[in-house]
Design goal:
The protein has 2 domains: 33-231, 3-Layer(aba) Sandwich (Rossmann fold), CATH 3.40.50; 256-435, Nucleotidyltransferase, domain 5 (2-Layer Sandwich). Helices cover 34% and strands 16% of the residues. The chain contains 17 helices and 14 strands. Helix 12 (315-328) crosses helix 13 (342-352). The longest helix is centred in the C-terminal third of the chain and has 15 residues, at 408-422. The radius of gyration is 24 Å and the shape is globular.
Length: 443
């Protein structure tokens, strides 16, 4: 009603407020929020304890969740509210210290103390908020809470195990509830989350849908010109901008179901581990990333994707990232393609660490042809992702050979598993037979 008044009347009303009233209005989320950013009526009633916000980038998920979290602590009487994000950096940089995070939204007279070393927030009323990560499911086992905010579940490395452990501890108070925010990825876990029911068949989840366009007036021109222009009009734009779950792309080499069905959370003893590097020609804005994928194999013909350390930076920075990944996973070798900067890769790595083992690989076949047998291994259930790699899996399931160049993460993955295939101990590895498992490939 205030917004619809002529400017002169709005100014008159606002000028008539006391400092205390103006301060209260500034921090009144019910006043500023769009209707879809406020909790739905079903939430917290009749067994429906999960509010799931599935929306495109820039919709305002972080702001609405931070404001709701503050209300839970300040007004609703929750005494054990906890946070969970994909990584420590995500929790700190987005959920807590981000420009739409808790510290940016909370009134100054209710400002909590953030203690990173103890992984917690301490509020002025004595309430403590503990922090958990989607890559550490065991640490989420046991802690109790009455309110949870779980951000970007799609990015969690071990989402199902970590989330379920957190829910087991969501048992304090008279009405424990949970907020889940995520850009949608059509993983089995996220899709099943929206369909959860209790033993009586009542829905456990209420979902709020939203589009990037809903929040256009609050988005910067830079965001609109970069993110919007990148995805608008594309199939992936339905996911990133519209908040839709995508079906499998019938022309892509990989299916999400093949990845989901063979995802693992424990790794057997590996006999060989490699770091695949697909170097970018430049680190300028708009250029490709440098794909860095770590993969290993066991002695039974199975392959494991262990990490995605892809980076958009200078050769010195991506070289350091590749070497860090090499040491972290105790790899045997780093490999890079000679067709696209392989000599530069070796020079960069050796400049940082002269003793690092490096193997140059040469592409004698097209990228689509190299990728086919690797996708067939996925179809046969021989490749397992250790956790979730959001950006890599999006590239795998959206890239259509022949219509665009292969993405950086996919190239690094293909090189890594191709190298491991040469090292297999299960007999001579014949790639030609794998081509017959893929019908109607189009390039």
């Amino acid at each position: 009603m205030l917004a619809l008044l002529p400017e002169s009347e709005r100014v008159e009303i606002l000028d008539s407020l006391t400092d205390e009233q103006a301060y209260a209005l500034l921090h009144d989320w019910d006043f500023w929020a769009r209707p879809e950013q406020l909790p739905p009526d079903q939430w917290g009633k009749d067994g429906c304890f999960i509010w799931n916000v599935r929306a495109g980038r820039g919709f305002g998920k972080t702001r609405m969740s931070a404001e709701t979290f503050i209300k839970a602590v300040k007004e609703w009487g929750y005494e054990h509210p906890n946070l969970a994000g994909a990584t420590a950096e995500d929790v700190r940089d987005i959920m807590i210290e981000g420009e739409s995070g808790i510290l940016a939204c909370v009134p100054e007279d209710f400002m909590p103390e953030f203690i990173p070393s103890l992984k917690k927030l301490v509020w002025p009323n004595g309430v403590e908020t503990h922090i958990y990560y989607g890559s550490e499911p065991n640490k989420a086992r046991g802690p109790q809470s009455d309110f949870l905010w779980c951000d970007e579940l799609a990015k969690w490395q071990r989402p199902e195990e970590t989330f379920d452990n957190l829910l087991m501890g969501l048992r304090l108070g008279s009405n424990p509830i949970c907020v889940v925010t995520s850009t949608p990825r059509p993983t089995r876990f996220l899709m099943d989350l929206e369909k959860r029911t209790d033993k009586r068949g009542r829905p456990c989840t209420v979902t709020t849908r939203g589009r990037t366009q809903d929040n256009y007036k609050n988005l910067s021109p830079v965001f609109i010109s970069t993110i919007i222009s990148k995805y608008e009009g594309t199939r992936l734009g339905r996911q990133e901008l519209e908040g839709d779950f995508l079906d499998d792309n019938p022309e892509a080499l990989w299916k999400r179901s093949d990845i989901d069905n063979n995802r693992v959370y424990n790794i057997p003893e590996l006999s060989y581990v490699v770091v695949g590097v697909d170097p970018a020609a430049t680190s300028k804005t708009g250029s490709d990333d440098t794909g860095i994928i770590v993969a290993g194999k066991d002695d039974n013909g199975n392959f494991y994707v262990l990490g995605d350390y892809t980076i958009h930076d200078t050769p010195q920075k991506w070289g350091a990232a590749a070497i860090t990944a090499y040491h972290k996973h105790k790899a045997n070798v780093i490999i890079g393609e000679t067709n696209n900067g392989g000599e530069m890769v070796e020079h960069t790595l050796k400049t940082i660490d002269p003793k690092i083992p490096f193997k140059a690989v040469h592409a004698s076949r097209g990228k689509a042809t190299r990728a086919e047998p690797i996708s067939a291994l996925y179809e046969q259930g021989k490749v397992h992702h250790f956790g979730t790699f959001v950006e890599l899996e999006d590239q795998m399931c959206e890239w259509i050979p022949g219509t665009e160049k292969s993405p950086d993460r996919v190239d690094a993955l293909v090189w890594a598993i191709s190298k491991l295939s040469e090292k297999t101990n299960i007999g001579k590895f014949d790639f030609s037979g794998l081509f017959r498992t893929i019908p109607k490939m189009r390039y």
